[in-house]
């Protein structure tokens, strides 16, 4: 069962990367909870359509994950939270901001879709799907590495 969930997650990640590349920053601001996984260098990543994301340097931050008990509620960015929603909550970054996370050798690029966490020592709240993609679920609360997207450029035609 776990293998099929990862397979579905990989397809969702690939489709989200194509959507972000095709519609640019406006679609990212709309915030569908889409995410994409990249294995590029820590300061840049390319989507399958050739658009490039540049990221800040890696930083460390406290994180937790949330979801159960909140499914069906709206996020601060206007989405409905579901078990399959990929995204993160941050107190100050604008909705749609793209962030890359690294934990236990897993890398996930996703968007800010909510506000929080409001507990001292934590910078990020991961949705259940994001925590699963990073192998963070069993940890519950811990440290992650993150880099915030600084630019989003479409390739020249």
Overview of the structural elements:
- The protein is an alpha+beta fold and 157 residues long.
- The protein has a single domain (2-153), classed as Barwin-like endoglucanases.
- The chain contains two helices and eight strands; from the N terminus they run αβββββββαβ.
- The chain has a six-stranded mixed β-barrel with strand order 3-7-4-6-5-8.
- Strand 5 and strand 6 form a beta hairpin.
- The longest helix has 29 residues, at 2-30.
- The radius of gyration is 14 Å and the shape is globular.
- The model is unreliable at 1-9 and 11-44 (pLDDT under 50).
Write down the domain tally: 1
In CATH terms, the superfamily is RlpA-like domain
Estimate the mean pLDDT confidence: 76
The tally of strands reads 8
* Structure classification: alpha+beta
Distance between the termini: 43 Å
Envelope shape: globular
Quick structural gist:
The chain is α+β, with helices and mostly antiparallel strands and 157 residues long. It has one domain: RlpA-like domain (Barwin-like endoglucanases, Beta Barrel), CATH 2.40.40. 22% of the residues lie in helices and 31% in strands.
Compile the SSE list and pairings.
Layout: H1 2-30, E1 44-46, E2 52-55, E3 59-66, E4 88-89, E5 98-103, E6 106-114, E7 124-127, H2 128-133, E8 141-153
Parallel strand pairs: 3-7, 4-6
Antiparallel strand pairs: 1-2, 2-8, 3-8, 4-7, 5-6, 5-8
List keywords for this structure.
alpha+beta; Barwin-like endoglucanases; six-stranded mixed β-barrel
């Amino acid at each position: 069962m776990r293998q099929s969930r990862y397979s579905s997650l990989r397809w969702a990640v690939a489709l989200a990367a194509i959507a972000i590349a095709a519609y640019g920053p406006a679609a990212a601001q709309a915030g569908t909870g889409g995410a994409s996984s990249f294995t590029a260098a820590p300061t840049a990543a390319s989507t399958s359509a050739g658009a490039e994301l540049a990221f800040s340097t890696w930083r460390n931050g406290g994180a937790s994950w949330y979801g159960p008990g909140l499914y069906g509620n709206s996020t601060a960015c206007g989405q409905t939270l579901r078990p399959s929603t990929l995204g993160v909550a941050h107190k100050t970054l604008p909705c749609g901001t793209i962030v890359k996370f690294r934990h236990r050798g897993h890398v996930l690029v996703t968007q800010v879709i909510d506000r929080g966490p409001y507990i001292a020592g934590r910078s990020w709240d991961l949705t259940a799907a994001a925590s699963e993609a990073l192998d963070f679920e069993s940890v519950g609360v811990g440290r992650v590495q993150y880099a915030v997207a600084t630019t989003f450029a479409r390739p020249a035609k």
